[in-house]
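My current task is to audit a protein record that another person submitted. Alongside the sequence sits a line of tokens, each denoting a local backbone shape. Please read both lines and tell me whether the tokens look consistent with the sequence. Do not assume that whoever made the record got everything right. Thanks in advance; the entry in question is below.
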Amino acid sequence: MPVNILHLHSTFDLGGKEARAVRLMNAFGDAARHTIVSAMPDNLGARARIEKGIRYEIAQSAPSLTGKPSVARYEALARYMRRFDLVLTYNWGAMDAVMARRIFAKGAPPLVHHEDGFNSDEARGLKPQRNMYRRLALGAAHALAVPSESLEWIALNTWKQPRGRVHRIANGIATGLYAKPCDPKAIPGFVPNAKEIVIGAVAGLRAVKDLSTLVRAVGGVSARTRLVIVGEGPERETIRQAAAAMGIADRLVLPGFLERPYRFVGLFDMLAVSSQSEQFPISVVEAMAAGLPIASFPVGDVPKMVAPENAPFITEHMGEVRLRDAIQALAGDADLRKRVGAANQTKARAEYDEATMIARYKALYEDALGRPGALG
């Protein structure tokens, strides 16, 4: 019988955690059946990545993951979770379900919680009340999976989770796909021009990504550049206004969200990361696999993710001037970009391929189930 898995997401729009969850669903094939709950019922963009033949449903009548804490809410969530063999929860938005599992433990299936990072309300510091809530709730989890060393440290030292419960599993991708030539028409509104240095970003257009700072940094670079920001979100107009203020509106391309990044990431000359909060950004892994250098703020694990050759272009501090200088150094030297990109590609293939990631998650979930080999 297939393993009946419940996925409880804060949102099921396509981001890093959703892309990984879907990749694992696809990898498990016929061995599992999936039910997906999104705390934002209309945010379901990641379902487009689920392969044909994977058995899944988007739950329509599940108890809400959000709302005022109450015994009745927790009991309803616990009762719903008992229908499944394994519960997978993701980020703060699903933490009430973890707490429900703790309060109403009798008859509950094993639960694995995944923590991938923080929204803008905790980007500059975690909230003490939430830390306490996490510390209490996570006692119900069989395991806590995190992708980065910084999150591992928080789990162990701030949330006081025992070492045996915390599992750091680096995000992985199909690195081989990124070595293939890109489609020059893959980005709507963008035509490659050998005379331009293309600075790319792949991110949701949200405040925490601070893309206006990236616009200002690029506006200060003394080279012929084009800035391509792939993603969608509420900050689109703010980004446009920043480009107009810097006089680079005609050099900004905002194509929206695009599927299959391996089709277009290689069209960039570098990837830039201006986010105020990251953990283990998948866009950095994708760019590394495509052989690109990275210019970034020192957020999350980015300084450790990149090859040593890329270290000088991870800024020591935040700020648009620092990011501008990192971009400027790469923009002015094609040979440097090639050397740094090649080192990044070698590291991505060796450490961040999805086969390793899939094997580790499969082993973790089967351990929670107590059924080795249950997921194929």
Q: What stands out?
A: The CA atoms of residues 212 and 300 lie 20 Å apart. The chain has a mean pLDDT of 95. The two ends are 12 Å apart (CA to CA). The first helix runs from residue 16 to 28.
